[in-house]
Structure to design on (251 residues):
């Protein structure tokens, strides 16, 4: 049996500070690679924080030179990282909520958030999603936050043959109980592993809940970060049998 190792990176982003957040992402990527992680998923807008009012000035093209060091590191580590960033697909194009897939083989793919949360339309336009990722013999479907609030999104992932549904999110304390229950239900309904990477500190005026989590294909909670702060939730396994561990990250 081939073993796949994937992880949710729970980060505490610094509002609008791309260089500082890039450095944090690099550190977490290195820590994950040391644990054998092949796919590392970061929260929604992890590289800038969830800051809609800053999105237009912070937005980059997916292949922007500012992001090249992160792409180079992913390739050097042979680790695929999914990082959150406000993006434009053309120089004068609208701003989208992007999840950039920095391949361990040097490739670059783009997922754009399909379903905006109420109020986000003032800063962003809805995107078109992206193709599932083949990782270690598994098919991984991506989601960004409000995407998973639409059952049709998860159904499309299942129809595409995904055995893993990986969501980068911003979930507040007030929304955590309902949102985590919804993700758990999807795991059980569709028989897929569900991985959720949440912010581990305040962002955009929200008190984020942390508690990044993973549920197995029977809907059982395999593991979760205890609270806020930075951590890696690492999941290992394959063919339906998975184990999770939490690696706390100190500054």
């Amino acid at each position: 049996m081939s073993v796949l190792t994937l992880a949710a990176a729970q980060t505490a982003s610094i509002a609008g500070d791309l260089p500082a957040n890039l450095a944090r992402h690099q550190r977490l990527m290195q820590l994950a690679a040391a644990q054998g992680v092949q796919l590392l998923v970061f929260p929604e807008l992890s590289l800038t924080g969830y800051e809609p009012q800053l999105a237009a000035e912070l937005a980059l093209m997916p292949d922007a030179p500012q992001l090249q060091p992160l792409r180079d590191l992913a390739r050097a580590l042979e680790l695929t990282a999914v990082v959150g960033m406000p993006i434009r697909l053309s120089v004068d194009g609208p701003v989208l909520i992007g999840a950039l897939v920095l391949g361990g083989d040097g490739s670059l793919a783009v997922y754009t958030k399909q379903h905006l949360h109420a109020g986000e339309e003032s800063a962003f336009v809805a995107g078109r999603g992206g193709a599932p990722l083949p990782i270690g013999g598994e098919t991984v479907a991506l989601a960004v936050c409000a995407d998973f609030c639409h059952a049709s999104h998860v159904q499309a992932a299942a129809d595409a043959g995904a055995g893993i549904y990986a969501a980068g999110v911003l979930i507040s304390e007030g929304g955590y109980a309902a949102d985590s229950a919804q993700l758990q239900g999807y795991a059980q309904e569709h028989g897929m592993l569900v991985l959720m990477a949440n912010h581990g500190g305040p962002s955009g005026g929200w008190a984020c809940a942390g508690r990044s989590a993973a549920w197995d294909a029977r809907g059982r909670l395999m593991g979760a970060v205890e609270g806020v702060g930075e951590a890696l939730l690492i999941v290992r396994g394959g063919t339906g049998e998975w184990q999770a561990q939490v690696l706390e990250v100190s500054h």
In short: The helical segments are 18-34, 55-58, 68-77, 151-159, 176-190.
